[in-house]
User: Fold this.
Amino acid sequence: MRSQVQRCVQCDSFFTHGGAGSECFSCSLESVRDELDSQVCDLLHGGHPKIVDVRWLLSQEESYIIQRCQTLPPEAFVSPEEAALLCIRKKGLIVVSYPWLTVHHPDPGGHHMRFLRQYLTKHVDAFTWQGEKTFGLFWDYASLPQPGPDGTMSVKERQAFKRGLEAINLLYGSMHTVVVQLTDIPTIAAPTQDVNLRPYSERGWCIFEATIASIMKPPTSLIDLGSVLVKLSLANVFTDWWNLQEVARAKRTPLVTPPIMASMLAEKQFTNGADREVVNKKYCDFFATIAPIMRALKVWKFPGADDWDDAERQHMIDSVPAFHNTREVFMTFNRFSDDDLAELLSNLATLRHLRVLDLSMCKGFSGRGFQALAVHSLPTLRELKLCKSDIDDLGLCLLADGLAGVPELRILNLSQCSLPAFRGFKALVDRLPMLRLLEELWLGHTSLDDRGLLLLLNVLPSLEHFRRLDLRGCPHITVVAVAALTRYLPQLPEVEPLAMCVEKRLTTLGRRKNTRSHSWYCKYCWQSALTDSFDLTEFACEDCINGVLWLPSELENTPEGVALVAAWEELEREDEQLRWC
Assistant:
């Protein structure tokens, strides 16, 4: 079955999908959301844990020190009903992850509070435009009952603490909440015995929170306020939330299986030693809940964040088989060696329903790891994205040799892969006929030349489902190839009408809009463009949404380019579908 434009039954937006599914990418995690959200909403609706009203907190004096839950006034909290709604509203609930600075009080000097207050001010300013006036904050010391001065809690307080603790993993792991990491440790000249200045990365609770927060969250929902640049941005009144999040995206902690988490926790510090088993069990419970039902695995390394080390990368690769029902795997911005790539493909072969593999912007591998496809096939894969990766000429040859292992492939995206040369493209073209379902080939901003394109044009008529070809920005394509393309044009099928493209553009650019534009990457061509999209995972530029055939802009006004436009019009193709970029 060829890909078709469909309307999502959940959000009513248009999307292109390779199968018979009826949900767009953004709604494909609804089963996970339903499972997690129903649990956390029930707990919050029951009043445990309590959620601090952000506006109340910001109304306190600049020198305010956070107080324990039992001593805060009732107006410091949102109602349980509001808390349950905030946890499923995008950006409505902020969850704090931070190291306690003393045994009895997490922030006695207001160090964490100072940075958090600056962040919350920008957060509220950025998202009040949605018409929402209430924002919630989960801060364990203020949200859960704490021991009194004598170190004890009543039976009722212990019961409330236990019920609130049940929501911890769900609050940090939810796709909707924003996790703010307060990783900066203050400098204290003469710390007393109860002061704990151990770094964030060495704390057991912090590593647990960072790991589960990294599993499903989009780039804008995991914020680290620890760097010098971020602290300068926080203090700058002219820096808004969107500017801040571009420099404050946290390093994504790699996926790890429960046994690996247990070994990691064994090396971390816990103020209360008994917490180690509590945290380990909570991670096991969370992993067991999401692993079987996650359909999109986003193992992104956010732009600007540090690369994973060898051990972290290995943990991530080893965890992939646990998500056995996953359909889409996104490894964007990561760094892999070819050995890593081969092992990753081996593990991906265990995913029986895998449809999409996105390795866009991944660096470090040349493509030799694709030799693994000869042994570990991906029989259900429909889309392979290698945009802006480091695949070279030999790597493309080896990928071409492995195409028999991806017989269902519909979309191959090599946009902005600058290293492959004629030999690699020839190997690819020679093996394209075995991809009888291929629909889209993205080769924009590559070194493809006239020879390679002429070979490609000889093959494309045999691909009856083929419908999109991207050649934009290819510097070695000349008028010779454009003239050949004009002769081939009658065999290029017409696809979705322009009216549908426009409607899809209006929905794809974001079902929820922001008041200002910001820069992000198109999910097809990986060119940076301005968008007011709220959902960056679905952003696509106007050229990609409306186009069917993309060509270098410098060829548009040549005689051959004019002839191609005339032939396009003669075939009554929509003008918008021929793009000169």
